[in-house]
C-alpha cells in the first residue's frame, strides 16, 4: 500500500483546507440555525469540487478518487454538514449516471452536476424499507413513453434542494432485487412532492426530507440501465459512497481530537495542564490511536478504488470503524472539555451530534458487518 500522497493530492488538501477555514467556517453558525449552504456550494462548484472524480469530458476535474476523498476529509473537519452534502451529491447522486447512464444521459446531466449547477440526491430508503432495501414498495409502471411512479421515500439527503434525484422503484415486485429499476428524476417532474423536512439531532445545515410520488411521470429515456439493473446500481454506488461517509466520520473525529488536545494543553487543574494528568493524557492517546487507524482504513479503501481494484469489504470496514471512532472520539472530547464541552460555546457538542448518524446512513454498522461477513 502506498501511503504517500502525490503532489497533486497534497495541493488538493491545501486548497480545500484553506477554503474550508476561510469560507465554510464563518458560515457554520447559519447552518446550525438550519440555513442550507447554497452560496458555499456555488463557490465549491467554481473551484471544481462538485465533480472531482468526473472526467473532463463531462465537465469534471478528472482527478483521482483519493483526491475526492481528501476533499471530503478536509471539508468534514470543519463542517460535517458540507461533507455529507458533497459525498451524497457525488458518490450516489452523480456517479450512477456516469457509470450506468447512456451517452445521452451523461451529456445531459453530468456536466451540470459536476459544475455544481445541479445538486444530486439518492432515493432508496422508504418508510418500511431501510436496511432491507430490496423490500422497497415504490412502484413504476410503464405506460407508453413514460413510467408512472407511485410511492414514498424517507430520509432523503439534499431532498428539496436537489435538481436531480436517482429514484429506485420496482417494476415487478415478484422479481425481488431483479425487479428494481433506477430512474433519473428532475426536480420539476409532475407528481414529485417534497414532504416533511426532518428535525435532526445534528447536521443542521443539511436537508433531509420525505418524498412522495403521486403518479409521477418519468420519461422512458430517464431509465438508468435496464429495468432489472436498479438494485445493482444502488449497491455498487453505495459501496463507493460508504468510503465518503467513512471519510466524513474521519473528519469529525480529527476535529474532535484536535479541539480536545488544544484545550487539554491550555486548561490548568491541580497546578498543571490537564493534558499532563494521566487520566486525560491516556484518553488523548487512545483517541489519537483510533483516529490514526480510521485514517489508514479510509485511505486504504480509497487507494484501492483509485487503482480500480475491488474495495467492497474494505469500504465497509472503513465505514464501520471510522464512524464508531467519530462517535467515541467526539464523546471523549466532551469529557476532556468537562462542563464547557456540554455548551454551545465550544464545537465539541456539534461534533458529537453530527457523528451519530454516520453509524446509521448509507448502511448501518450492522449492515456493514453483514457485508464484511459475506466477504469472509
Ligand atoms: N455491487 C454490485 N452488485 C451488488 C453489490 C455491489 N456492491 N452488492 C450486492 N450486489 C448484487 C448482488 O450480487 C445480487 O445480485 P445477484 O442476485 O445477481 O447475485 C443482488 O445485488 C442482491 O444482493 P444481496 O442478495 O446481497 O441483497 P440483500 O437483499 O441480501 O441485501 C444488503 C444486501 C447489503 C443488506 C443491502 O440491502 C444493503 O446494503 N442494505 C442497506 C441499505 C443502505 O445502505 N441504505 C442507505 C440508503 S442511502 C443513504 O443513506 C444516503 C444518505 O442519505 C446519506
UniProtKB/TrEMBL annotation:
List, alphabetically, the PROSITE patterns matched.
ACYL_COA_DH_1, ACYL_COA_DH_2
What is the originating organism of this protein?
Neobacillus rhizosphaerae
Per the record, the domain of life is Bacteria
Q: What is its EC number?
A: 1.3.99.-
- Alphabetized UniProt keyword annotations: FAD, Flavoprotein, Oxidoreductase
- Domain Acyl-CoA dehydrogenase/oxidase N-terminal intervals: 6-117
Whether Chloroplast counts among this entry's keywords is no
The molecule here is called Acyl-CoA dehydrogenase
Q: Which Gene3D superfamilies match?
A: Acyl-CoA dehydrogenase/oxidase, N-terminal domain, Butyryl-CoA Dehydrogenase, subunit A, domain 2, Butyryl-CoA Dehydrogenase, subunit A, domain 3
What Pfam families does the record tag this protein with? Acyl-CoA_dh_1, Acyl-CoA_dh_M, Acyl-CoA_dh_N
Family matches, as InterPro entries: Acyl-CoA_DH_CS, Acyl-CoA_Oxase/DH_mid-dom, Acyl-CoA_Oxase/DH_mid-dom_sf, AcylCo_DH-like_C, AcylCo_DH/oxidase_C, AcylCoA_DH/ox_N, AcylCoA_DH/ox_N_sf, AcylCoA_DH/oxidase_NM_dom_sf
Give the main EC class: oxidoreductase
Q: Which CDD domains match?
A: SCAD_SBCAD
- The residues covered by the Acyl-CoA dehydrogenase/oxidase C-terminal domain are 229-374
Q: MF terms per GO, please?
A: oxidoreductase activity
Residues of the Acyl-CoA oxidase/dehydrogenase middle domain: 121-216
Q: Which family would the database say this protein is a member of?
A: Belongs to the acyl-CoA dehydrogenase family.
The coenzyme or cofactor needed here is: FAD
Amino acid at each position: 500500500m502506498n501511503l504517500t500522497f502525490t503532489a497533486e493530492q497534497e495541493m488538493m488538501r491545501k486548497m480545500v483546507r484553506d477554503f474550508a477555514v476561510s469560507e465554510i467556517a464563518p458560515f457554520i453558525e447559519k447552518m446550525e440555525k438550519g440555513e442550507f449552504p447554497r452560496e458555499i456550494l456555488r463557490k465549491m462548484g467554481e473551484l471544481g469540487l462538485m465533480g472531482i472524480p468526473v472526467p473532463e469530458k463531462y465537465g469534471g476535474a478528472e482527478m483521482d478518487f483519493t483526491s475526492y476523498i481528501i476533499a471530503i476529509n478536509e471539508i468534514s473537519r470543519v463542517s460535517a454538514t458540507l461533507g455529507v452534502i458533497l459525498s451524497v451529491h457525488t458518490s450516489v447522486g452523480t456517479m450512477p449516471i456516469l457509470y450506468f447512464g447512456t451517452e445521452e444521459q451523461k451529456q445531459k446531466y453530468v456536466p451540470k452536476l459536476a459544475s455544481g449547477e445541479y445538486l444530486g440526491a439518492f432515493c432508496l430508503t422508504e418508510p418500511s424499507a431501510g436496511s432491507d432495501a430490496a423490500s422497497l414498495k415504490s412502484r413504476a409502471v410503464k405506460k407508453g413513453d413514460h413510467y408512472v411512479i407511485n410511492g414514498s421515500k424517507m430520509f432523503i439527503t439534499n431532498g428539496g434542494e436537489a435538481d436531480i434525484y436517482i429514484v429506485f422503484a420496482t417494476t415487478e415486485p415478484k422479481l425481488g432485487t431483479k425487479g428494481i429499476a433506477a430512474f433519473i428524476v428532475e426536480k420539476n417532474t409532475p407528481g414529485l412532492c417534497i414532504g416533511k423536512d426532518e428535525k435532526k439531532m445534528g447536521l443542521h445545515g443539511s436537508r433531509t426530507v420525505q418524498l412522495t410520488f403521486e403518479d409521477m411521470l418519468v420519461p422512458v429515456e430517464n431509465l438508468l440501465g435496464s429495468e432489472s439493473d436498479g438494485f445493482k446500481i444502488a449497491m455498487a454506488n453505495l459501496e463507493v459512497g460508504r468510503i465518503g461517509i467513512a471519510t466524513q466520520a474521519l473528519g469529525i473525529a480529527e476535529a474532535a481530537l484536535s479541539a480536545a488536545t488544544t484545550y487539554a494543553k491550555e486548561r490548568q487543574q491541580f497546578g498543571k495542564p490537564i493534558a499532563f494528568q494521566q487520566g486525560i493524557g491516556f484518553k488523548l492517546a487512545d483517541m489519537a490511536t483510533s483516529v490514526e487507524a480510521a485514517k489508514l482504513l479510509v485511505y486504504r479503501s480509497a487507494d484501492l478504488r483509485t487503482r480500480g481494484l475491488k474495495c467492497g469489504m474494505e469500504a465497509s470496514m472503513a465505514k464501520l470503524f471510522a464512524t464508531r471512532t467519530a462517535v467515541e472520539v467526539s464523546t471523549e472530547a466532551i469529557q476532556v472539555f468537562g462542563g464547557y464541552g456540554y455548551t454551545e460555546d465550544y464545537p465539541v457538542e456539534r461534533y458529537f451530534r453530527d457523528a451519530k448518524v454516520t453509524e446509521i446512513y448509507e448502511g448501518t454498522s450492522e449492515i456493514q458487518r453483514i457485508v464484511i461477513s459475506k466477504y469472509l
